[in-house]
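Can't paste images in this forum, so I'm doing it all in text. The chain is below; anyone willing to post the predicted structure tokens underneath?
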Amino acid sequence: MRKGIFSKLAIQNIRNNKSTYIPYMITCIFCIAMIYMVEFLRDCPTLDQAVRHAAEVRMILSTGEIIVIIFCVIFLIYSNSFLMKRRQKEIGLYNVLGLEKTHIGIVMLLETIITTVISLTAGIAAGILGSKLALLLLLRLLHIPAVLGFYVSLKGIVICMVMFGGIFLLILFLNLAKIRLNRPVELLHGNNTGEKEPKAKWIMALIGFVCLGIGYYLAITTESPISAISIFLLAVILVMAGTYLLFTAGSIVILKFLRRRKKFYYKTSNFISISGMLYRMKQNAVGLASICILSTGVLLMISMTVSIYFGMNDIMVNRYPYDTDLSITGISEEECQTAIDAFEKTISDNAVPVDKKAEEIYLTIISHFDHGQIQIAEQNTLRDSASVLTLSLVRQSEYEKLTGTDPALQDGKILAWASNISEKSDSLTVNDSVFSVKKWLTDSPLTCGQDIVYGNAVFVVTDSDFEKFDEMRTEMYKDTSASPAGQDLTVHLGLDITGSDSTKIAYGTPVLDAIKTLKDNGQLSATSWITSGIRAQEYDSYYADNGSLLFIGIFLGSLFLLGTAMIIYYKQISEGYEDQNRFEIMQKVGLNHREVRSSIRRQILMVFFLPLLMALLHISMAFPLIRRMLLLFGMTNTKLFIGCTAGTVLIFALVYGLIYIMTAKSYYHIVERK
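Text version of the structure:
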């Protein structure tokens, strides 16, 4: 062999296949840049200087990086498989012309080296340029002022070189193995191999419908946020399986059904579109299903993270109803009063500019609710989280102090409020005791004590009934470490302060310290539990977590969107080459240019937008389940979630349409015969 022939062949091959090599290298460059930017953010010293909760941010970034790495490996192997499929005839021709498989292997090695060097150089350069923008975006989402400075992560460069060097080496081995196993004639005619008409697999189609139906049913009917976590994974697996089965088998069934409708089928455009899709749907189905799944993943990920981020204020108000908010659980009536006295004294001594305050004493009991029956039970026996009821008991004297209204109750009569009891009956049974409901309250008399995960109820009762409930709780928990009757009350102390966030922190801090001092001095029970926080102070921590989640959501959403676009592009190119000869024949037998273009447009639209429509269906069915899962984050604003989801869907549909316009041009260019 003449010196330098292999390197010239390698360079020439890349040039000749630029329509597939360029998108492949762009994908590699994007993936490398993404990994570098994540590593840059994890390694960047600026993060420690600017972010108080840098460790939490790094932990979230690390989790996101694992997903990015897995996606990059799978997607680059998929992209390379498409590239190799387009080159089968070329490689077969090399064999026929006398090149040995060893020589072809050398050419492919050189091609891989060239691709690797270009991709790593451009990817790391793009990562370095984009890393500052990524840092500014992250700091913006964390509500932290931008920090000036320039930093290059040597660790990030090394990781990118090692990791993607390994990926490119793996791809090379896969390509060499494919060449070694295939015969030259098979490679030479690989693109011309016909495909038999697929059979209508009714059983697979039925299984697909069943999987999809069960997945949708679980998503719609799951009521408990706790159950939603375990149900979510099962529902995702079922919907993914159903999606692949329906695209693979269900699409064939539907197309053959349309073909049997003679009036519809024997129209020029319908005939060409349906027959063309039918003969290659087995090959296209996996790609279309992958586009659908990736699109659904992008929509879910971005809509959820955007909702959590912009719902931050609602989340914080749910967690801390007041600017300075604290609850003490597991104390007696006297200790509740001691805490209230210390609370009042601290406010007075520090001249706190009070806007509003709350002092609430109540008893909380975890119970089970089913069809009007409330059963006080041990927590470890409550298997069905959807039936768990957090029951809060308020004395009528406390209710009068809170509302200024005398309920005038008698033993056995109660005022009731409930968040999840739809049937407002005149009586409620608790264990074996029946209580008459004098009135159903429209709002809870307590400003706290509401569990956003489980159902909630508040009963206003007489002193005698209050003791009765406490005794029932004590009897149920007598074999556990629970506090005895009268020793497990909760006092909630809330304080809204006039002024800026710094003012609220300055005045709220001594209030919290005063209550914590009571426990340190032994004035509160050693087993008592204090939950406290200053809302303005807690924002930093929550922005660190949720801002990082949104950043990762944008990152992964961008990566998945790239994957969607590239799969669509590869599919369009593949379809174009496969359709080219067929449309040329049809033009030769009398089909004019307008009819060809109309048929092409119809086929592309039918195939192209089917995954998007299916993804929108998945999103709409998953909405109830995702809404319940968001409750675990404290996100209760359903209208905001609807708005964020609708906005995400709209933007994604516009981007998807733009991808269609760009890739359709490539398809038309290949297929049409001028």
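The mean pLDDT is 79. The CA atoms of residues 200 and 254 lie 9 Å apart.
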